[in-house]
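Researcher: Good morning. I'm working through a list of sequences from a screen, and I'd like to move beyond sequence-only analysis. For each chain I'm collecting a predicted structure so we can compare shapes side by side. This is the next one on the list. No need for commentary yet; just the structure.
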Amino acid sequence: MKKYNMAPIFFDYQRTPLSLKKTKIALDNLNTYFNRLGTKYAAGGKLYKNLPYFIGKGYIHSLPPY
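Model: Good morning. Structure tokens for this chain:
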């Protein structure tokens, strides 16, 4: 996935149909994994909408571990 998404941003890397196909395969595998786990997010079921605020204010240590 990084070769298709990130490499063209930072390096002279061309996106190809093969790299797109590999990216789609990787995302399909990730979705299958999440479906088997019964979850929607890689970060967990609880996402904090304003996380930069908590980090900036030093409240990150008061958040429950997930």
